[in-house]
UniProtKB/TrEMBL annotation:
The keyword Hydrolase applies. Residues 208-308 form the Peptidase M20 dimerisation domain. This is Amidase, hydantoinase/carbamoylase family. It holds the Pfam family Peptidase_M20. The keyword Iron-sulfur does not apply. Keywords: Hydrolase. InterPro entries: Amidase_Cbmase (IPR010158), Bact_exopeptidase_dim_dom (IPR036264), Peptidase_M20 (IPR002933), Peptidase_M20_dimer (IPR011650). Coiled coil: none annotated. Belongs to the peptidase M20 family.
Length: 408
């Protein structure tokens, strides 16, 4: 048994120091993928890893891999997550997994501890999917879910492509996508939901990730004068959108524990005395059971047809992302459970409601995740909060699980 302990002060300092890159007045972070702020956070991480003598490689879609050699020439055990955030994101989503991984490297370095397998810290590109959809794009390319050309061609709402933004910040690396081998991956993350806090559990032993599907809907009616156009002659795209938004909520509620959200709406021309002629909206459906998502999807298609007919709209609906439910590797899940038990921490099994790079890495290597609570279950919010103690516990479980796996 090892008796290594991570340094919680050093971990907390890293979190607070990097939180200044894109820090918001409300205490969160605004650091969209492939912006100059993302570059600054990447530069910070790269130099921290190089200070430890790690070799940092970057692949063609900007995924970063920092390797600390082990005793054996075998595929590395990976840890990490993502450094990009939502436009009004918090200080912990993704970031905790990366900086706890860095803390592992620092702890091992300080102790002069030699692992059997190399240890690899990963920062995945564009996990959030906020600037460039879909989410988990960098890990998806790595796992062969998307090809590189597809990633490069994704555009933000201003028309800038992923490839242009990547070149602009100087993070298109030479490593071929998918060429970096993974022996296993452990991703530490905040829960982003209320369960652990409500049940007063320190650790979530994550057994899988629910299925996720994203859709884009464009509705076209006719712009006309609001004062002189009788109600019976209108083709109001926003009225159609309102029907769809209400139906998305109803569909999710009738398929528990499914969830459904319209998070982005653009209205044209968005003028108070013009009947809306164009609406663009997005739908996000999630459910642990892929068959239930099929049913929800069918209901959405019927709803859009119906809303189009009722308001006289042309409509286009397409699925832009489908990430099926994932079950994590049982041996790695066990390693996390043993680690929590060994440290005397309370835990429960949990299925992730949020998407994570681990869901795609699971396609190419044994993978699992560790969750820690966050206050009020709040995430994708500047007020997102996980305590010093919770971060310490999560990082210590990560270290123990990695070393347990390394000895097997
Ligand atoms: C990404 O953060 C997602 O879960 O949508
Ligand atoms: Mn995340
Ligand atoms: Mn997120
Ligand atoms: Mn996420």
């Amino acid at each position: 048994m090892h008796n290594l302990t991570i340094d919680p002060d050093r971990l907390w300092r890293s979190i607070m120091e990097t939180a200044a890159i894109g820090g918001t007045p409300k205490g969160g972070i605004s650091r969209l993928a492939l912006t100059d702020r993302d570059r600054q956070a990447r530069d910070w991480l790269k130099s921290a890893c190089e200070d430890l003598g790690c070799t940092v490689t970057v692949d063609e879609v900007g995924n970063m891999f920092a390797v600390r050699p082990g005793r054996l020439d075998v595929p590395p055990i990976a840890v990490g997550s993502h450094l990009d955030t939502q436009p009004t994101g918090g200080k912990f989503d993704g970031i905790l997994g990366v900086l706890a991984g860095l803390e592992l490297l620092r702890t091992l370095d300080e102790a002069g501890y030699e692992t059997n397998a190399p240890l690899m810290l990963v920062n995945w590109t564009n996990e959030e999917g906020s600037r460039f959809s879909p989410a988990m794009l960098g890990s998806g390319v790595h796992a062969g879910v998307f090809d590189r050309a597809y990633a490069d061609s994704r555009t933000d709402r201003q028309g800038v492509t992923f490839g242009e933004a990547l070149d602009e910040i100087g993070y298109r690396g030479p490593a071929k996508v998918g060429s970096t081998a993974f022996g296993a991956m452990f991703e530490l993350h905040i829960e982003q939901g209320p369960i652990l806090e409500a049940e007063e559990k320190a650790i979530g032993v994550v057994t899988g990730v629910q299925g996720m599907r994203w859709y884009e809907i464009a509705l076209t009616g006719r712009e006309a004068h609001t004062g002189s156009t009788p109600m019976s002659l209108r083709r109001d795209a926003l009225v159609g959108a309102a029907r769809i938004i209400g139906a998305v909520e109803a569909i999710a509620r009738t398929h528990p524990p499914g969830v459904g959200t319209v998070g982005l709406v653009e209205v044209g021309p968005n003028s108070r005395n013009v009947i809306p002629g164009h609406v663009f909206l997005t739908v996000d459906f999630r459910h642990p059971d892929d068959a239930a998502l099929d049913v929800m999807e069918e209901a959405l298609f019927a709803t859009v047809e119906e809303a189009g007919r009722a308001s006289g709209l042309e409509h286009a609906l397409r699925q832009v992302w489908n990430s099926p439910a994932v079950a994590f590797d049982p041996a790695l899940v066990d390693a996390v459970r043993r680690a929590a038990d060994g440290l005397g921490l309370s835990w429960r099994e949990i299925v992730s409601g949020a998407g994570h790079d681990a869901a795609y890495v699971a396609r190419i290597a044994p993978t699992t995740m560790i969750f820690v609570p966050c206050a009020g279950g709040l995430s994708h919010n500047e007020a997102e909060a996980t305590s010093y103690e919770e971060c310490r516990a999560g990082a210590q479980v990560l270290l123990a699980a990695v070393l347990d796996h390394d000895r097997r």
